[in-house]
Amino acid sequence: MAIAAAEGDILLARARRGDLEAVENLFRAYSGRVYTLARRMCRTPQDAEDIVQETFVEVARSIAKYRGDGPLGAWIHRVAASKALMHLRRDRPVEWGEEFDGDALPAPGTAPPHERLDLEAALSRLSDSARAVVWLHDAEGYTHEEIASMTGLTPSYSKSKLARAHEKLRKLLSPREDDHAPQHG
Amino acid sequence: MHPSMDEILSVRDGEATPEVADHVESCPGCSAELLRLRKVSDALRALPAQEPDRDLWPPTVARIRGHRRTFRVWLAAAAAIAIVTAGTATLILRGRDIASNVPTPHLARTKVVPPGLQPPTAEPDEPPVKDPEVARLIRKSQRLESLLNRMDERPTVVSGREALAEMGLQERLAQLDARLEPLAPGRTDRQEQVGLWKERVELLGTLAQVKGARRRTVQI
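YS: structure for the whole thing
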């Protein structure tokens, strides 16, 4: 549900004054996309729900800082991405180390390693940090510099994480074909 | 020598050097890999939107209201500390050493644990509550309490500003814990309880990040 520009200005002014009805309107307009982002980055629906709530608590608290130098939806989305990243780093801090190259534990009942997985199942097999970078960069369009700024890490970390994540995805999506794939760097 | 995965990704994203781009274009294996990577990112963007099982506005607005209440209390506490600190500085400047008679901010952690719950331990115990979401949040809160306890075992240098920030977080935690008291007046309903526990977890996480960042700075 998009918000027309003039209506958006009025809503923004009311939200800045602390009007909860205005914040609810923003919630109804943008929470769907926020939930999708959170659900794709996190492991469980409960974590995604936490992030949606934390995002809009932050929106209500910090709406005065939004200067209108980009679409409001993009600003809210970025708040959500930051909240999701903080949540993931808080839960499993060791996965965000440069040296970490592990996988997530497979969920019960998932296919054994040699079976081809669909994309969603393969994403769930990545570590939190790898999945977050893949989703933010490839699906949501954040640059490595933006991801670096949100994680407090470096653009080269983000690029390296993305490359290793895609190597793992290649194995998970086409395990037998991967045996014959050209060896890259 | 074929380019690395991140070099082929840079070709995909239009950021590669001409040499790498030329190689990928002319090498059948690398071109196939580039095509595969493009298909994967297209497929990621085409994944369906997800929807929660319930309306998340009610717990969200409960948390917003909770934040606003505790923020007002924190402001009052911070103002009181500022007044006391200013008063102490003024008296010292006048040459009178009465600091020992003036209450000073301290970093004693809030040890309040709502009655009926086990105290925090390194291995979180099963909290005696029936609601699974509340139970999950309580376990998370206990894990963070354990982490903060371990951090507090190592003293670090603290600036006045950091002390004030931590004090503010502690005050907010104390107010939250008072609301989480089972026998407190105006006992909270389930949704508000979930909202308050989530806020507690968030505050503890923020406190852990503040203390963790300070420790890393001191180590450097």
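YS: worth flagging: The first helix of chain A runs from residue 5 to 16.
IM: good catch. Also Chain A has nine helices and no strands.
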